[in-house]
Amino acid sequence: MAERTAPGGVQSVERVFDLLELITDAGGQMMLSELATASGLPGPTIHRLLRTLAAKGYVRQLANRRYALGPRLVRLGEGASQQMGAMARGELTRLVDQLGETANIAVIDSDMVLYVAQVASRHSMRMFTEAGRRAHMHDTGVGKAILAQLRDETVRAIVARAGMPTPTSRSIGNVDDLIAELHVIRERGYAVDDGEQEIGVRCFAMAVPNAPTPTAISVSGPVSRVDDSFAERAVPLLREAAESISRNVNLVSGG
Amino acid sequence: MAERTAPGGVQSVERVFDLLELITDAGGQMMLSELATASGLPGPTIHRLLRTLAAKGYVRQLANRRYALGPRLVRLGEGASQQMGAMARGELTRLVDQLGETANIAVIDSDMVLYVAQVASRHSMRMFTEAGRRAHMHDTGVGKAILAQLRDETVRAIVARAGMPTPTSRSIGNVDDLIAELHVIRERGYAVDDGEQEIGVRCFAMAVPNAPTPTAISVSGPVSRVDDSFAERAVPLLREAAESISRNVNLVSGG
DNA sequence: AGATAACTTCCATAATGTGGAATATCTGAA
DNA sequence: TTCAGATATTCCACATTATGGAAGTTATCT
User: Fold this and answer.
1) Is the minimum distance from the CB of B46 to strand D below 7 Å?
2) Does the structure show a pLDDT above 70 at A178?
C-alpha cells in the first residue's frame, strides 16, 4: 500500500520482530488485540505469526490467552551478548585491571543505550548496570559519547522521541545544553558523566570508532576514587581499548 | 515440494529462527556458505533473510562478511528472562516465606546454568547469586537437578565442553562420579549441593517438569540452618512449587 | 596476476502468506 | 445458571510476496 517497503526485506520476518519488540516494550506479555492496535496488523495475521513463534518456543501462550516472550529467546540473547562481549571483554577486563573500576560497553538501540557487557570491579561499592539494561542517552557517559558521533539534527530527533528526564540536579534538561556539551565532547575526544544519572557516580566514556552500530565504552565509579588523576590515567587507556575493540569488531576475531 | 509443511507455520519466520539458532550453536558467527550447508537452504534465500535481520540489528555483518548475532537480540533475551522470572516469582516468594531461605530459578544455557530470578531470604548471611549470573552445572544444585533430566551421553558432552572445575574439596571432579550422583538424584527426586560450590553452603534443588527449556528451582543457605529437618520440610514444598511453575510456564490448554 | 570460491543482485514464477468473513471461546453481568 | 459483548481462532479464495536458478560481483587463495 502507501507504506514504504524496505528493499529486499522479508515482510513476515520484519513483522514478527516488530511484534516481539512490542511485547518487550509492554513488559513481556500482551493480548492479541493489544498487539493489533499497537502494530496496525489484522488479527489473523498476528495470530498466525505468533503461532509460528509459539511452536518454536520463542513465545508462550499463557492460560489467560496472553502471549509472553518465550524461553528460547534467552539463549539467543545470551549468544548475542557473548558475541559482543567476546570482542570487547578482553579489553574491558584489561581496563578493570589497570584502573580498578567497572567497565561497560553499550550500543545505541532505538533512541536509548543498551548495555551489552560489563566487567565489574572488585570494589564492593559499584554500579549494578546489568547487561541488557537500557538507559537514556543524554544522562549517561556512553550515551553522550555515542550522540557526539551523530549529526546535531539526528540528536534532536532522538531526544525528542526518547525524552530528557533529569534524574539528578546535574542532569542536562534541554536540547541546546546537550548539543553544546556534545561539541565539547567532540573537541575533547571523550565524554564525562559527573553525577548526571546518580549523584556521587562519575563516568568517563569514549566512542568505539567505525563500529557497525554506534558503540561506546566507559569506566565508572564513585567520585571519591574517580577524580582528576584517575582521568589522566583513564583517558589514554580508554582510547587504546576503543581502538582495539574497533579493530576486533571490524576485522575477524576468533574470540 | 514434497517436504512436509508445518500446519499454520509461516515458512520464512521458521527459517529465520532456524538460522539464528544455527549461528548461536556455532558460537555466534557464521559464513553464509556454512549456513547454506547446515540448513539446506539455497544461498540467495539465506542472504535475503539475513539482510532483513541485519537491517533491524538482530544480526551484524562483519568486515569479513561473516554474519554474527546482533545487539538487538540482547534486549529480547533480557525481556524473556524477566518474563520467566515473573512466572516463578510468586512461587519463589512463597518458598522463602515458608522456609526462610533464598530461592532461585535457573535454566540451562549453552552448557551452563543461567540464574533467571532470585528471591532473597531476610537473613543477612545469604547467597549472592544474582539473576543473570551463569555457573557450572556439576557443582550447583540447580545444575545437577537439570542434568539428571538429560541422557548420560548428553551430560558427558556438556561437561566435556564446559569443564569440571572444583571450587571446593567437596566438588565433583570427574564425569563418572557425576553420572553416579545423577542416578541417585533421579531415584530420590531432588538434588543436593552440600558445599560443592562454597564450603558451608547447602542447597536443595528440583527440576521443573516439562519446561520448554530445562529448568530447576532451589533453596539454599548456610549448613547451620539448612539441615536434615530443613530438608524434610523443604522437599515437599519444592515439589509443589516446581509443579505449580510447570503449570504456569506451559500453556494450559485444558483450561 | 589468474583462478577459485564465496557473496550478492536480478527476475520470472508460483508458492506462500494474507486478511475479510465466519466460527469458537472466554469474560462479566444479571 | 444464561445471555451479551469482547476477544481469539479457523477457514479459504486470492494475489501479493517470497522464492531460488542463473548471472554478476567481490574476496581469497595459489
Assistant:
1) no
2) yes
Specify the CATH number for A11-70; select among 1.10.10.10, 3.40.50.2300, 3.40.630.30, 2.60.300.12: 1.10.10.10
Average pLDDT over residues A197-223: 88
The three three-digit cell numbers of residue A17, written as one number: 520482530
Backbone φ, ψ for residue B236 (5° rounding): -65, -35
Positions of chain D reached by protein Cβ under 7 A: 6-11, 17-22, 27-28
Is domain B77-249 annotated with CATH 3.30.450.40? yes
Interface confidence (ipTM) of the complex:
0.75
Q: What is the pLDDT of residues A98-147, one digit of tens each?
A: 998 889 999 887 789 988 888 876 554 444 446 667 889 999 999 999 99
Covered bases, chain C (protein CB within 7 Å): 5-10, 16-21, 26-27
Calculate the alpha carbon distances from A168 to A65, A185, A190 in Å.
Answer: 41, 21, 21
Q: What residue spans in chain B does CATH classification 1.10.10.10 cover?
A: 11-70
Q: How many CB atoms lie within 10 A of CB A165?
A: 10
- State the pLDDT at residue A72: 83
Q: What are phi and psi of B227, to 5 degrees?
A: -115, -165
Distance of CA B87 to the CA centre of its chain: 15
CATH superfamily label, A75-250: GAF domain (3.30.450.40)
pLDDT tens track for A27-66: 888 999 999 999 988 989 999 999 899 888 899 888 778 8
Nucleotide closest to residue A1 (CA–C1'): D16
> Nearest Cα to B250, choosing from B219, B216, B213, B217?
B213
Give the angle subtended at the CA of B159 by the CAs of B154 and B161, to the nearest 5°: 95
More confident residue, A185 or A85: A185
- From residue B156, give the alpha-carbon distance in Å to each of A16, A124, B166, B197: 37, 37, 17, 20
Question: Mean pLDDT across chain A, nearest whole number?
Answer: 85
pLDDT at B232: 94
Strand D lies under 7 A from the Cβ of residue A12: yes
The three cell numbers locating residue A73: 529467546
Which residues make up the CATH 3.30.450.40 domain(s) of chain B? 77-249
Name residue, grid cell 534538561: A173
Q: Please identify residues in chain B, positions 26-55, with a C-beta within 7 angstroms of any atom of strand C.
A: 31-34, 36, 43-44, 47-48, 50-51
